């Protein structure tokens, strides 16, 4: 091969940039002659005789410029049958027009295909096989023989035993060895387009390099090539290079500025650049003569370099060599030769520890260059024979913090690579090649993947090892990022489950995570003012900087995509263990932090947003979907592994971050910037879900503040979503509305559009309802169970911006929601209901797969029957198999046959499935609640054979596997504070006369009572709802004119409460009976006008104020006291009516008055019963001493108030409320009231109240 090397060195002087065909012919002749052993195996490849060419080709001494008009011998290759070796991947490169088969049953996924040569129809009888033909841009390969691509062994139609002679094998190896040594030695000095070199060449930057000196230094060494590599000192080219950020017009402008050519000529050159990657603009005898033209050409950001003719032709030779390699590894007329070439190619390129014959010296660089090693690392420059690896990989764990910059806790690898293979250097050097040559490299790389299984595994190891540096080189030095081989390698390599499992098992994931985190932090991040974390941002670039910044953006997106592929298509069943045992865990958290709180939204007030942008929605999905998908896959764990240790590690790191953020979380969602993207919360949720409940209490007990911090973040997103849905953020436009919709949507129907258009680059696209919203709810559930319930409830009320309404300081109309208050309450009830009833994430076996799918079908059909096409449309984008869909559908639905020619029939839900449905389920949107509820009532009345007004819908539970967790849930929802919230919500609905959320609220109360009834500690939980006058409100609703569904439900709950507690039954019934008895007594006296307490309440400011403010303080008074206070109010009006009627003989009352003290300590309920009886006996005359009766009444109430009200702090709030209701000034009047109350023995408490009302 020495003659071949000499020939290659001596070839450039014979040609110029125009002689591309001549260069290619000479290269092909030389290498084909060499690979056949200078004619020994000529007949194995070509027709004709070797003797006919031996005289000309022998010794490689022919004149390169002669005989170019004749047809070269290497085009006569003959014909042969295609085949590939047994037990080996076919790897056939699919060309335009080739048949491609895909079998849904046999293939691992839809990327696994079979070429027309290998496809055996006997393997796929009755299978779902699709056939299509390769297009012009197809660069895929046949996967036949790859056991990771198919579920079973295929009987290939073209496998055979292929072999070549030993000597022939040696010639193939030597020819390829020479080819790639030449390619690498030349490309090692093709560095003028690299940003670091280009910006410091000639009179630029720090003037590190001189064009002529750099070209001379790049001469190939005599000791290796056997000839002097003479430079062409009298011929220098000005070369304009292609990039991804300039169009034809911009290129033509640059060309005309540098050359002065007319438009037609400039357009021709621009097309050449677009097709081949570069073009020569001018030629001069001296490089400095081209500097002015170079400056003009680069005015708009294009890259223009100055090269000697020798250097340019050498790169043409490199392109021809790589083209020849592509031809021999796809050689069609001799399969044995082709397969041996592929085999030897793998052996050669994958062999480690390649050494260059010559490289740049560190002495060439002046000492003024700072961070030289870093610049060389980013450019892929080999200095002193090695390429330093400064990848940000190794984490100093004690220094790690989510709030610290990466450079503060990372130690660069810094070990000089002594084992880089030819493959790895080709990967680093790829950005130096022109466009056509880059595409050739891609084919060579893919041929290694499509060869032997061992070669594929070795390729994967070396590619991942080089990944970190390759990504940074691509991001910071690539001018044609769209041509990067990484995208094509991903499709062929990272779709293999075995390869991806190998990446995790080798603890190599950090080689992807480290560099992408480093790139985001240094070039695409912005500090989030809310959580203090660095967030990824959109890279905005101008014309002059877009070349650099677009490649960074592309590199970040590609790496995130690669990570999703590694997680998604993986054989490992315990990914979490693989990433938690090394630096990958820290890198994964670092990656998540860049998205935590990303794209915050601030509510717009005043004018509506001026412009609606679909781009905002697209960016939201591009940010959220991949990172949430990563959190989903990263937590795949073996239950037997110590997941609790991983959770402890997470909380320790998160607590460290929380401690460094001293800012107090804001409670105003409607004012402050809030994000819907919280991947760290989702990651924590999945860790919590995977951790045994027995370990959770201890782990969270040490980190309760961290859990509350996470809860604050999740809850803000939930509230933001709810506020957007009720129209509070309407001025922000539809983009925010769509983001909120995607955040909480469980269907992929709309999201599938962005996925199918490949706008979202991720191996898996799932609904954010599953990935994000449900996880935020789970974090909130976890806090309810394991944190302080009062703190969590306060957080809920504060963040929902209901604190002042809850405490009675303002009415609903004065909250931020104004006239949308009822809709905000409706959203709150739905969220709380889901949290209470759906505890599936606390189950040992979470409900997923077919059962969940059937459930969704049921809810789709529950309100009306639908045709198959309508049903399948609702599930569009959910990656469902039509056959599986039909199986699930037939399980829960019946087909109603078509009734006419145009009718296709409809599916109706089976009657028994109506019993399993809940109108407030997470599968039902709030807008469908009423229609679903009505449908359920209608169908259940039929199946139960009862009237519709007798049907009460039962709430459905998904309980936790652990009884302790279920008890914790119930304890939270039966606290006095939560009971007060339920009471106020019910009172608000009654007072407003609106039914917007009352039906949902009653359904929620029903769920609580059902859970209470099933609890072993029922009495303890029930007391909270007995101790507030909830029964009174239920009675009011049951007797109201609200819809039938509401009144029936209220009556059912009232009866349920009475049946569940004896005290409730006795007290409530006696109260009602007493009032009814008194009404009957009054009626028997034939009075002209009897005032009903409820009638008076509607017009009397006294009752209005008392009822409005006193009823809102359920937790402050126990039920007995509150109930009797209300009774006092009602009876006061009855007594006033009696006074007005002149129907009492006051004398009879004196005996009762004397016995008052004997009864004061008795049960309040009994005392009032006696009071009624006394009045009953006293109604014997038409005259009554009004003043004495009034004094007796007020004195009695004074004593009662002193016993039952003086000790209640609520009374002070009541006085303040009454004062506020009547427009009084605050401080002075309160002081006077306090003085009055302190003299209660002389002035009746109620006398004071009467005075206030009177004045």
TrEMBL record:
One of its GO terms (molecular function) is zinc ion binding. It comes from the Eukaryota. GO terms for cellular component: cytoplasm; ubiquitin ligase complex. The keyword rRNA-binding does not apply. The keyword Transferase applies. Its EC number is 2.3.2.27. GO terms for biological process: protein ubiquitination; ubiquitin-dependent protein catabolic process via the N-end rule pathway. Belongs to the E3 ubiquitin-protein ligase UBR1-like family. This is E3 ubiquitin-protein ligase. It comes from Candidozyma pseudohaemuli.
